[in-house]
Amino acid sequence: MIWVCEGLPAFVAQDLDGQTESLHWAYENPSAFCQHGLFAVLHVSCMVMYRLNRQDIRFPPIEQATPEGLLAIGGDLRPERLLEAYRHGIFPWYNDDQPILWWSPDPRAVLFPNKLHVPRSLQKRLRQNRFTVTLDTSFRTVMEQCAGPRTQYPEGGTWITEDMLDAYTRLHALGYAHSVESWQDNQLVGGLYGVAIGGAFFAESMFTKVDDASKVALVRLVRQLHTWGFRMIDCQQFSPHVARFGAEEIPRSGFIAHLTEALTLPDRRGRWEFKEVIGQKD
Q: Which uninterrupted H or E stretch holds 46?
């Protein structure tokens, strides 16, 4: 077992029809898989891996993922496959010089909207109304900011490739992907984006240029999701950051049970809006 951010070992790739192919990946960019936004460092074991193809959007059973959660490689990022992945608790995460890697980690970090915890210092910030928070006004820009260099991540969200930008922008146009923006003095200073299906929101990444800007955006989003009856927010990997807001770590089996229930709710597609705008763009 090695760290993902130190490269991936040799694998035997197997497609869903049982055909195998030996592969060896040697990657640069050692920090590519280090923590970005809502993600944390993962590990990878050397074992049989499923290879996806463009004709078949099926995924192997998530129980066949590595102990670290890596389930399959390859395929593409067209909307049908991405939605199929999210509906089964799977998400893509890879670097620009790698094939598409599909993950379903166990355990899983989940934030239930009715269990949101707002730290006292952030409650004060919210009362001050220093930020205007909006929904779906600058989706691609939010993604680009998440991909760009930040103080805590000088190399940026290197897993947000151009293909990922294009793929999630398509999901946004279809009404499945959404962004939350924090503005100050008419400048975008924080935000996050994710995918919504049924009563589940799958958080992807966030950025901030001003203290607490993305945290305020997150709280406003969670409260709105609660109002809409959303059942869960997938935070993917547990971290101190998401724990501060009440996220908890649950077994993947439990996550799938909650997800299955959440998917019985209708999709809330299209552009989202808050019922009221909080703050002023002074």
A: none
